[in-house]
Amino acid sequence: MIRPIIHDPLFLGQQSKPATEADRQIITDLMDTLRANLDRCVGMAANMIGEKKRIIVFCNGLMQMVMVNPQITAKSGEYETEEGCLSLAGVRKTKRYRKITVSYQDQAFHSRMGTFEGFTAQIIQHEVDHCDGILI
């Protein structure tokens, strides 16, 4: 189900709680909402649809990917960039890393580890920040 986007910075500034298998519907709703906003969005965190759970979805090339309970475990190549956000007006400067390693669970709640670079790494960092209550 496509859900409305949350714009309240007080809600978005709260830390998300770990997701469990009981949160499968949130994953489906988050994917549906991302697909409905692909013309202006490349990633979303569950708090953007009103759910304080550590779930993110994002575009990885032509496919959409789900990460449940993502944790960035390594990062390198710091740089400064500007980002926008579907939940917030305008763009802001922020620091990101060119290469990251992420520990997460997939949509079936299997443990995974992945290394990501470039724009995909930037998207993941933005969405993990959402999970941590960090707004750009």
Task: Indicate the topology.
Layout: H1 9-12, H2 24-36, E1 43-45, E2 55-60, E3 63-85, E4 88-105, E5 111-117, H3 118-131
Antiparallel strand pairs: 1-2, 2-3, 3-4, 4-5
Q: Would you kindly provide a brief summary of this structure?
A:
With about 140 residues, this protein is an alpha+beta fold. The protein has three helices and five strands; from the N terminus they run ααβββββα.
Description:
The protein has 136 residues and is α+β, with helices and mostly antiparallel strands. It has a single domain, classed as Peptide Deformylase (Alpha-Beta Complex). Helix content is 23%, strand content 42%. The chain is built from three helices and five strands, in the order ααβββββα. A five-stranded antiparallel sheet has the order 1-2-3-4-5. The longest helix has 14 residues. The chain is globular, with a radius of gyration of 14 Å. The mean pLDDT is 97.
